[in-house]
Amino acid sequence: MHHVIKNFLLCGINIVAYPRKKIAPFGITEFLLYNTLILDVNMSENSTINNNDFIREIIKEDLAAQTYKTVITRFPPEPNGYLHIGHAKSICINFGLAAEFGGRCHLRFDDTNPEKEEQEFIDSIKDNIRWLGFDWKEHEYFASSYFEQLFEFAVKLVKKGCAYVDDQSAEEIRKSRGTLTEPGKASPYRSRSIEENLNLFIRMRAGDFKDGEKTLRAKIDMTSPNLNMRDPVMYRIMHRTHHQTKDQWCIYPMYDFTHGQSDALENISHSICTLEFEDHRPLYDWFIKELGIHHPRQIEFARLNLTFTVMSKRKLLKLVQEKHVNGWNDPRLPTISGLRRRGYTPCSIRDFCIRIGIAKANSTVDVALLEHCLREDLNKNAQRMMAVINPVKLVVDNYPVDRHEEFQAENNPENPAAGSRPVIFSRTLYIERDDFMEHPAKGFFRLFPGGEVRLKYAWYIKCTGIIKDPSSGEITEIHCTYDPATRGGWSTDGRKVKGTLHWLSAAHAQSAEFRMYDRLFTAINPEAGDKEFTEYLNPRSLEIKKGFIEPVLASAAPLQRFQFLRTGYFCTDTDSSRANPVFNRITGLKDTWAKIMAKNE
Ligand code: ATP
Ligand code: MG
Q1: What is the pTM of this model?
Q2: What superfamily would CATH give domain 383-599?
């Protein structure tokens, strides 16, 4: 249901808001107040696949008209970086459509540029797609394995008089291409004979020329209003070792002379790509037509942009190379590897990709929606535990020094089948420093001198005093008494308390490191300002805290996810060990997205 579509020039972002359930439009001002501008949300009730988008319509028509018998899609990453959440959208669309229409989806590495590509990226891409829950089965392909075939295609075009060898430099070609208002100028080499072109092209392959000395260009139309049709370069000379074909080739085909032909060779029915390729479609179609090969249908959709992050691989690479983050799988990055290490579940990412839907207009999605999808999943499935992140000692003066006892703590109130576990109570505990205020602010319902609160699962306690470090003035101990008539955290006389605190027994707790991650950028759109995007990095995107956890957590498996009561969702980091447990904060408990939606109910 698409209700509101508004363009806001603010930040150069296109705002598209589609509220769930509601018929009346959103109050856009409320969005601005929330700093959450943009939603491109095609929400269907249970996040089931929305099968009314324009791509599905096209496919249904094509199948009905028998233009294609089987739906064959492909996901075509260039192995020049790690995949990000935008790629996840493309993966979900391509694999999703194939599954829905009983077809298949190929994984094809678009590896035509040996300069920037590496095996590491190929491995990570495969690993990421599998983790997301998709399987290309035996359909793993490399554009580079078509190099011989592509060369023959090029020869065919040369022989038809549809391609020529140009001696101009890349710079000269760029200059003579013209502009949107001016036609291009024909290259002085454009009218070479077919024989000469063929001979030169074969010599290009043989290595007779240096890098950049010659190119092969399609002979189309230097006056075309579409710049892509002004004799685009098909091949360039690069004396470079390729990660797959090694030193077999010193000429490499350009993307535009590779992609459609690879699609054709694999019998792709629908070649789904992002909007920036719309202007390349006439060229895609031209090559296919001139070569007389299978004609896949190119369909463009809007790429995913997210607030508070950057998505292009070039920018992600800069963040990694300049060490603004700790590698491609830094939990603050929007890479699949980063999200995974952060604690995201594959299910929440797939759910997000379904909810944002497929549109034809570029927009930016509020990162709060991604977090919302994650929380929905974790709320159902993550085990609750207690951890104290910023600890202060709490001494229960009327509790015997040598005593300790167990209380049963429920593992997941959303799922009674998850059972319970024992937690140990004793005289000296840790509680969260923030849960105490010596001079309570108005509306502060947690612990303060003379105040009473519940210790979750255990007892009511009343604060009787504090001890401070004489030099720094910092509180070092809080003293209290417990009420033995409140076992399990419930009073027998009907007395109510407003605050409930989590806690750990100091003698039994295990120390742990908490990596408190926050947004990597402080700007909604770090690319929109006049400064370099790295100027908007959030200096507090990672804060490391030393605190305590329930002892069993020390043996949690890597990347296991938990809800730490009242503090947020966390997962064990891959750096974690039994002796030095490390937890990443996945996200806080407060759901800003749900809040926005509730406001608009
Ligand atoms: P980037 O611009 O981020 O570097 P790319 O387009 O160069 O990405 P490719 O490896 O060529 O990266 O992308 C593989 C596929 O993923 C392509 O079909 C591309 O259209 C799609 N894709 C890339 N970024 C996005 C995005 N933000 N949203 C949706 N699809 C995307
Ligand atoms: Mg690309």
Answers
A1: 0.90
A2: Ribosomal Protein L25; Chain P (2.40.240.10)
